[in-house]
Specification:
Layout (H helix, E strand, L loop, with lengths): L18 E3 L10 E11 L17 E2 L7 E9 L8 E8 L2 E9 L6 E6 L11 E6 L20 E7 L8 E2 L1 E6 L5 E6 L6 E7 L8 E4 L23 E3 L2 E2 L3 H8 L8 E7 L6 E13 L18 E16 L4 E10 L5 E10 L7 E3 L11 E5 L8 E6 L13 E6 L5 E5 L3 E10 L4 E11 L2 H15 L2 E4 L5 E2 L3 E9 L8 E4 L2 E3 L6 E7 L5 E10 L5 E10 L23 E7 L8 E10 L2 E11 L4 E7 L5 H9 L3 E10 L5 E3 L3 E4 L2
Parallel strand pairs: 30-36
Antiparallel strand pairs: 1-6, 2-4, 3-9, 4-7, 5-6, 5-8, 9-11, 10-17, 11-12, 12-13, 13-14, 15-16, 15-21, 17-18, 18-19, 19-20, 20-28, 21-27, 22-24, 23-26, 24-25, 25-28, 26-27, 29-31, 31-34, 32-33, 32-35, 35-36, 37-40, 38-39, 38-41, 41-42, 41-43
């Protein structure tokens, strides 16, 4: 576990802000009687929270200004209409605040605008913006409502080598956020400490009141694990059987060796919800010794690693801080960058506060218990997706803000796990990357003040990281014998590749998850349902179906009678009827039967022919000799008729009888 950073703040980047303990005093009767902040934006259009950059380690760090804020609002005054100036403050509680901007003069209409310089106060408690009468401590803050919920103060640090001046590139990163009303978390790069901890607010009015941090370095992928510890020694990440290191690790070992690659870091924050997304992209490197070979022993030094070489694998992590700061989602993707296949293995370290007295409940267990040192945790029977629960205090299973409860939801179970005592669990993942392919695993860490709330968080995490199948509806009816099934499928927390089938027919899935496949319909008319299923890379299934009604009409030819021999005595009479087998779905053929009769009496044996779909044939009937004379007479009188019926058969062996059709033959 890496110790929390004690950041040094640049005085030049900070606005002088004095914390004041308010002494209640009413505003002047004819002065400002109310003020409301209507918007807070940045001049550049970026999200409005402020980020400062601080110094840490012996590498070059940035000193970049935060975003200047444009704060707009309205105010009201007493009966005389006097305009009184305003102070913009950030309140930690009803009795404690910082003056941010003083002496703001509203227009006659009461509208006002203030431009707030960057604030850099790492480690300060969260606060809320309020506009109040200048120099006054209002007896009630009700007329001066806070903007939003909490003014989110934080900083974003990138350490880099002096030779690397590319914006957004560094060796590691660290963030500290005062989030929404629930909590505020720390976050760092994946091989440092990752989820540094989440502090729950214990008061809704005093924002400086919070409990202990819960997760301590959860989701960390360290460079290696000590051979002297109780856990089996191994590198944190292994590519092709060799230890592989990210920029933070290479900097610690030999940051000046040839081949060092920077970490690409990005950060965005939703100005409405306060949700933060941090991205880091690291090309994993092999340690190369003085002889030009890959150096495999653990815990190498600059003497062992004189240079670095690409492993051909890139690690991308997206860390999303959501749910008011109570939930951190870590999505890790390992991808082949050299067009070759790779075997990749990585170890994830999940640790709770060492001051806690925790216990854990792993999937399949019904009770909580503290794991012991070097305890092997059997993951064989774990569900492919599930949740590990833990308590800060084993004696407070229902949790409080001061003694919280936590959950770690995984999108794919690890291949193995081992405990480092009651505070720490290591999970090992193994993946085979196809040439140019990738593998993704998502782990979600939640902290709440109650077991009910953390269970709900875990259920939401399992739902959000489960594979997703969205199907495009088919037309209500169709006259064709095929249907085009399309939609969108993703592997959820496990990414791509993913596979989709529709009625057992494979559908190619594009990089964005869209797919389309043509599926034949049954020859039988009526409602047709097509079963669709998607499978993510670890075998989790999302299933659905689409339906349409097949209404293709039965088609037949137009029957007609061949010429009748009338010269002399009639010795033979034939009736020829041309027929057609309509293309009806995936039909393999038709059996067409003609029954001939005169005035409702049969005068010839029925005749059946087999016809291929879309083809024509002739049905030739020979009249019974005993009926030829009568038939010749009836035919001349146009009394000869026949009944035509088509029976279709489909590939599955089903049959469909068409409507009987009476036709005049003579």
């Amino acid at each position: 576990m890496r110790m929390r950073k004690l950041a040094t703040i640049s005085a030049a980047a900070a606005v002088v802000a004095t914390t004041v303990l308010a002494n209640a005093a009413p505003a002047a009767a004819d002065g400002v009687t109310g003020a409301t902040i209507t918007s807070v934006t940045t001049l550049s259009g970026a999200p409005y929270p402020l980020y400062s950059y601080v110094t840490y380690d012996n590498y070059l760090s940035e000193y970049l200004p935060g975003q200047t804020l444009k704060v707009s609002g309205t105010s009201s005054s007493g009966a005389s209409g006097d305009v009184t100036t305003l102070d913009l403050r950030c309140y930690y509680s009803d009795s404690s605040y910082d003056n941010v901007t003083q002496g703001i003069t509203p227009k006659a209409s009461g509208a006002w605008v203030a431009y707030v310089d960057p604030i850099s106060r790492e480690g300060d408690d969260p606060c809320v913006f309020r506009a109040v009468p200048h120099g006054e401590d209002p007896a009630s803050l009700t007329p001066y409502p806070a903007f939003g919920t909490i003014y989110r103060i934080g900083y974003f640090e990138i350490d880099r080598l002096p030779a690397d001046s590319s914006a957004g590139n560094g060796l590691d990163h660290y963030e500290f956020y005062s989030e929404l009303a629930k909590s505020y978390p720390d976050q760092s790069d994946s091989s440092d400490c990752s989820d540094f901890g989440t502090y729950l607010h214990t008061s809704t009015t005093d924002l400086s009141a919070y409990g202990p941090y819960f997760w301590d370095c959860a989701g960390a992928v360290y460079s290696d694990y000590s051979a002297t510890g109780p856990v089996v020694a191994r590198a944190g990440t292994i590519v092709g059987g060799h230890p592989a290191y990210d920029p933070d690790s290479t900097a610690s070992i030999n940051g000046h060796g040839d081949g060092v690659e920077p970490m690409a870091v990005g950060l965005t924050q939703d100005p409405t919800t306060g949700d933060v997304v941090i991205s880091e992209v690291s090309d994993l490197l092999y340690c190369i010794d003085s002889g030009g070979a890959i150096y495999d022993p653990l815990q190498p030094t600059s003497t062992n690693c004189v240079s670095w070489a690409p492993s051909g694998v890139r690690h991308t992590r997206l860390a999303s801080l959501v749910n008011g700061g109570n939930t951190t989602v870590l999505r890790d993707t390992y991808s082949s960058t050299d067009g070759a296949a790779h075997a990749v293995s990585w170890t994830v370290d999940d640790e709770v506060n060492n001051s806690a007295t925790p216990d854990w409940r792993f999937p399949g267990q019904t009770t909580f218990a503290p794991p012991t040192t070097s305890q092997v945790i059997d993951t064989t029977a774990w569900p492919q997706q599930g949740t590990v629960y833990t308590h800060y205090d084993s004696g407070t299973p229902d949790g409080t803000a001061a003694l919280p409860v936590g959950a770690m939801t995984y999108s794919a179970k690890p291949s193995s796990a081992v405990a480092y005592g009651p505070y720490e669990v290591y999970s090992v993942y193994q993946r085979a990357l196809a040439a140019g392919g990738s593998a993704t695993v998502t782990r979600t860490y939640s902290v709440e003040a109650s077991a009910t709330a953390v269970t709900a968080d875990a259920a939401a995490a399992e739902s959000s990281t489960a594979p997703k199948l969205v199907l495009t509806p088919l037309p209500l009816t169709t006259g064709t014998h095929v249907a085009v099934v399309s939609g969108h499928f993703t592997g959820g927390g496990n990414g791509f590749p993913a596979s989709v089938t529709a009625n057992g027919i494979g559908a190619p899935v594009s990089a964005d998850g869209t797919f389309s496949v043509t599926v034949p319909l049954s020859a039988l008319p009526g409602l047709q349902t097509i079963a669709v299923s998607g499978v993510d890379p670890v075998g989790q299934v999302a299933a659905g179906s689409v339906s349409t009604t097949y209404a293709n009409p039965v088609g037949t030819g137009t029957p007609k009678v061949s010429k009748t021999k009338r010269a002399g005595k009639v010795t033979k009479e034939t009736v020829t009827v041309p027929v057609t087998c309509a293309s009806y779905g995936p039909a393999v053929g038709c059996k067409i039967t003609l029954k001939l009769g005169a005035k409702g009496k049969p005068v010839a044996p029925s005749r059946t022919v087999k016809v291929l779909p879309g083809r024509s044939a002739k049905v030739v009937l020979t009249l019974a000799s005993s009926a030829r004379g009568a038939i010749n007479k009836l035919a001349a009188g146009k009394h000869l008729s026949g009944v035509l019926q088509t029976i279709y058969s489909d590939p599955a062996g089903g049959t469909l009888a068409g409507k009987r059709k009476t036709v005049k033959l003579a």
